[in-house]
Amino acid sequence: MVEMIIVLLVLALANSVYASEDIAPDKTVTYKTVTTEKLGNVELKLHIFTPKNHKLTDKRPAIVFFFGGGWNGGNPNQFYPHSQYLASRGMVAISAEYRVKTQHGTSPQACVQDGKSAIRWVRAHAEELGIDPNMLASGGGSAGGHVAAATATVKNFNEEGEDQNISCQPDALVLFNPVFDNGPEGYGYDRVKEYWQGFSPMHNIDENTPPTIVFLGTKDKLIPTTTAEKYKKIMNDKGGRCDLHLYEGQAHGFFNFKNYEYYTKTVIETDKFLASLGYLEGKPTLRQQDE
Fold first, then answer.
1. Structural domain count, the chain
2. Domain that holds residue 183
3. The whole model's pTM is what?
């Protein structure tokens, strides 16, 4: 009997770790239609998760996530588990599509243009989505962390024809091993060197950069811990808030759902950070495996 219970517990844990394929958004909407040389007209969509009994008359806090993939590939389902959890806590959580090189034949600039478009669209349609346009966070991992950080920091790379009176700057940032230094010693410099000064979030921090939380493994071969520490220092020097969480021995992408231990740890800290800003109430409902 005891052995059977142990087997069931192991199976339950395995299912919880690999259940992301079973997670689906409550709805998808098109936020932008673009023409690409590779595919012609492309509709970019937002994958939206809503709280239980959500009403369009609500004014919920919201977050928009951007997937990682080196500006080359990726899939919005990377942040489905994060979105589902935050929706269970009362937020409207969104995982956004954006153009990438392998699928659309585009450059890193297009990634940022789409990121800005997504934030603008969500803010402009706040009433239709039942969200508070002044409590709109953004997050992402790796290159998606760059896109999120760029929406908050860089001034250019706006989509032509969009209403720039609608701010694309989120009110908070949740960044997982983010690519936020694109300078000569940073990530992707060879691909963006013609315009890196205006493209690199670290080099465009100012006093208006929103409160930020950063998660990084100490064995990340793409993003050194010194980069994150420098980012935090610049933010602090500008009078901003940057909470940095370093995870000993962890490599790039350690936060993903398949690594359930660190997915849980980082999501709990995300919950606490958002609660400190008034986006969430109460304690995290997710529990670490050893609790």
1. 1
2. 25-276
3. 0.91
